Amino acid sequence: MNTSLLNRRTIRRYADRDIDPNRLNGLLALAARTQTMGNLQLYSVIVTTSAEGKAALAPSHFNQPMTTQAPVVLTICADFRRTSRWAECRRAVPGYNNFLSFLNAATDALLYTQTFCNLAEAEGLGLCYLGTTLYNPQPIIDALKLPQLVFPVATLTVGWPDEVPALSDRLPLESFVHSETYHDPTPDDIDRYYTPKEQLPENRHFVELNQKETLAQIFTDIRYTREANESCSQALLDALRNQGFLGNEE
Amino acid sequence: MNTSLLNRRTIRRYADRDIDPNRLNGLLALAARTQTMGNLQLYSVIVTTSAEGKAALAPSHFNQPMTTQAPVVLTICADFRRTSRWAECRRAVPGYNNFLSFLNAATDALLYTQTFCNLAEAEGLGLCYLGTTLYNPQPIIDALKLPQLVFPVATLTVGWPDEVPALSDRLPLESFVHSETYHDPTPDDIDRYYTPKEQLPENRHFVELNQKETLAQIFTDIRYTREANESCSQALLDALRNQGFLGNEE
Fold first, then answer.
1. What number is the ipTM of this complex?
2. Partner residues linked to A155 by β-bridges
3. Is A107's CB within 8 Å of B184's CB?
4. Tens digit of pLDDT for each residue in A167-198?
5. DSSP strand pairing (A177-179 vs B43-48)
6. The model's pTM
7. If you count residue pairs, one on A and one on B, with CB atoms under 8 Å apart, how many are there?
8. Which of B140-172 are b and which e, b meaning 16 or more Cβ less than 10 Å from the residue's Cβ?
């Protein structure tokens, strides 16, 4: 895996070739060896392979072409529903309609997701992780018919790669690893951490193209703006409430 | 990695042997190849190796012995602080003091965490994932001196294994993989999914020891009760607010 990880890149274009369902199921099963809270496996995976299913999900992912072009779309959900149903069938009273339980299940789901990613990439599959899942979850909930206490936290498009994009850069280790307590970065630290990224030709080009002064402005003014973050935060909280994770409505 | 994953178990007892810092840093650096939102790497890792540092964290983890016995404790944090500082140093106005940004950073942090787990376990290291991180984050925030927009989401104790516990069971694939839409489990499904787990000798013993009727009651009445979940949900939301992720207090 070390080698595949060193060479990993997000893949957004896929060959016209299906993924053998046995292979996919084998990876989905093996990923479940990941540690999980109380061994409860607080996640579910919705596998979308039909053209209609992908088309229904596409708008939630800003109609990015990989959503419909990939042979498989996986929506990984935080799931306290199955465990709660189990309790109800066994004379036990579940108490998981609260925020901690959401974060516990989301954690289980995301750890599971990443083991799946590492396994699939080690087999040569190409993945794109769609962060858009959290921007507007309600239409995804509706399309996949997710019941109470099930909430989508990650989406992966999966297929055989049809491109070899450039490796992306990463920040130096010292920028994100801290010894004993958090080291708040000084302006000099920030220069040292971020200047190499800012000087990459593609990033300089991107700043110029968008008529911005700095790369950071690309993020704050265009890609992840306060306005979008705040309106999506509200949509996210509303969807969490609808799915029963923020109260005692049950 | 497939083999190490098939054999993976949580390790709570460690040999009296340090982890070479170069090895640890190599794993922490390689794990950063994991995909990340906008390539921003919205996480930080606090490495605790001092006896005082571990002792300060131990109460937050219910004084579980691995917290002080492991040579290394890693606290992985959702971090929008470094990115916001970068913006501030570059004439950009960050807007990440909101709930979506917390979940985006928590996602980055958890995906990073799991790649680190996969890599470390493939090298023969033993890990225990401490879910207690989310139960009462404020003392962890205080001990590690985490500033605004940094929030602990996962803790790993790391060392060389000094035990070989039994492999834990997992639910069948059909219980957590759904085709196209969510299949709400019927009572028959629940029986099929959970009976093998309920019949394991250790689980039967556990139910008897605790004088419960069913294994599910062990979870609802003892391990993860509604009362604890609700009081921890409040503590979690309070800590998120204190760290600036729930509002416009900045």
1. 0.98
2. A75, A130
3. no
4. 999 999 999 999 999 999 999 999 999 999 99
5. parallel
6. 0.98
7. 331
8. bbebbebbbbbbbbbbbbbbbbeeeeeeeebbe
